Amino acid sequence: MRIPAIMAGMGMAALVLFSAASTLEARDDHLRALNALTLYAPEAAGDREYLGLDDEEEKISLGQIDAEILIVEIFSMYCPHCQKHAPDANKLFRVLDSRKDIRNKVKMIGIGVGNSRYEVGIFKDKYSSPFPMFDDRDSVALSTISGIYTPHYFALRIREGSIHEIVYSKSGAFPDAEAFLDMIVKESGIK
Amino acid sequence: MKMTFRAALLGGLIILLGAAVAPTVMARKDLIYDPGPLKATDSLLKVRVGEQAPDFTLKSLSGKTVSLSDYRGKNTVVVSFIPAAWTPACSDQWPGYNIAQDVFRKHNAVILGISTDNIPTLHAWTSQMGGLWFPVLSDFWPHGEAAAKYGVLRSDGMADRTIIIVDKKGKIRYIALHNINKRPPLEEIIHELEKIR
Question: May I ask the CATH architecture of the domain A29-188?
Answer without folding.
Answer: 3-Layer(aba) Sandwich (3.40)
